[in-house]
Design a protein that fits this description.
Elements (H helix, E strand, L loop, with lengths): L1 H15 L10 H5 L3 E6 L6 H12 L9 E6 L6 H9 L7 E4 L3 H4 L17 E8 L2 E6 L7 H6 L4 E4 L6 H13 L3 E4 L5 H10 L4 E5 L1 H4 L4 H4 L3 E6 L17 H16 L3 E3 L5 H16 L1 H9 L3 E6 H11 L5 H9 L8 H6 L1
Parallel strand pairs: 1-2, 1-3, 6-7
Antiparallel strand pairs: 4-10, 4-11, 5-8, 5-9
């Protein structure tokens, strides 16, 4: 009878991932010898992939049982492809997690993006380790070295981006309208690695991107002076102006507040909806231990990442408060910046 009872309890615990204090199966029992698959919503070589692989390198060491973590990529639609997969198809067993991305993924519900089959508020948020400071980087060859130079410039500046609704495309378009900056955003690049290659070839003049896009993948472009920082979203880099210092129009501020919300969130690591509460607690606690680890922080900083962790509960609350109900007029104007057709890279190269 005892053997039958124990087998029954074990089956029930494994089926429900129930490893709470009263269960005979502990977190270590469940995760030991297991593999967690961690997806990035963008292709290899960019900032999202870079941060995902940093998490994959360290996270398993802090989870009881030390499971193996396999890093994979599921690019598409600015992170929405991975978001849809996690929401609809992935098992909520604590063994499939993802880092879909920032603006494309996080803003989809706010602006009614077609193709987003998920409800952002229903994902299981594990945590975010790195807040994101976006910077306008321009090629040295543009001869623009400062915000003052940019304000005086009349020459068109082509900025490379990922998709029509991503922060790296829409923010330059907002600034072009309200500030008069001579930006023309082109998009369709699969990842920032491709944008950097285009920059080196002279196909684009710069990019508006989060820090890890360059510091974490091609820091040589910064140290060599190939790219120059002109302004930033948050006051992190010394001697680089902050966007708030020159953005004064109330509507422009409202648009940029919406667009920069994903930067404040960073890159959330999340799981499918309705993930077991005990599994969620274990993963969230492990994530915070990882984010506080000295070696993790030093490694992140070497890759150009600003470690500023947020808990899963904090992410859940921030998203519910800031990315669910957005004024219609702000959404309408946001949408007006996403309708231009992308520029053919072949045509651009021949110009």
């Amino acid at each position: 009878m005892r053997i039958i009872l124990r087998v029954t309890l074990l089956v029930a615990a494994w089926a429900g991932l129930a490893f709470g204090p009263s269960s005979p199966v502990t977190a270590k029992d469940y995760y030991e010898g297991k593999t967690i698959t961690l997806f990035a919503g963008y292709p290899p070589g960019g900032g999202v992939d870079n941060e995902m692989r940093l998490i994959a390198q360290f996270f398993g060491k802090f989870i009881p049982g030390n499971p193996n973590i396999v890093a994979k990529n599921m690019p598409g639609a600015g992170g929405m492809a991975l978001g849809n997969y996690l929401y609809i198809k992935a098992q909520a067993d604590g063994l499939t997690l993802g880092m879909p991305g920032r603006s494309g993924f996080l803003l989809a519900n706010s602006v009614g993006q077609k193709g987003a089959q998920y409800d952002l508020t229903k994902f299981t948020y594990v945590g975010s380790a790195v807040s994101t400071n976006s910077i306008l980087w321009l090629r040295k060859g543009t001869n623009i070295r400062s915000l003052a130079d940019l304000k005086q410039s009349k020459k068109e500046l082509v900025l490379g981006g990922l998709n029509a609704r991503s922060q790296n495309v829409v923010v330059p378009r907002v600034l072009a309208k309200y500030q008069g900056f001579p930006f023309r955003a082109v998009y369709g690049y699969p990842g920032f690695h491709a944008v950097l290659i285009a920059l080196e070839r002279g196909e684009v003049d710069g990019l508006f991107s989060h820090e890890g896009s360059i510091q974490g993948t091609r820091p040589d472009l910064i140290t060599s002076g190939t790219v120059v920082p002109i302004f930033q979203t948050f006051p992190i880099e010394p001697n680089v102006p902050v966007m708030d210092s020159f953005v004064k129009n109330p509507r422009e501020k409202a648009l940029l507040t919406l667009l920069n919300a994903p930067s404040r969130i960073g890159l959330p690591t999340l799981g499918p909806p309705a993930m077991n509460a005990d599994a969620t607690g274990v993963l969230r606690a492990a994530f915070q231990k990882m984010a506080a680890d000295k070696t993790f922080r030093e490694t992140a900083e070497k890759r150009g990442m600003n470690v500023s962790p947020a808990t899963g509960a904090e992410l859940q609350a921030f998203i519910a408060e800031n990315l669910v109900s957005v004024p219609d007029e702000v959404v309408k104007e946001y949408m007006s910046y996403t309708k231009s057709k992308k520029k053919s890279k072949k045509k651009k190269k021949s110009e």
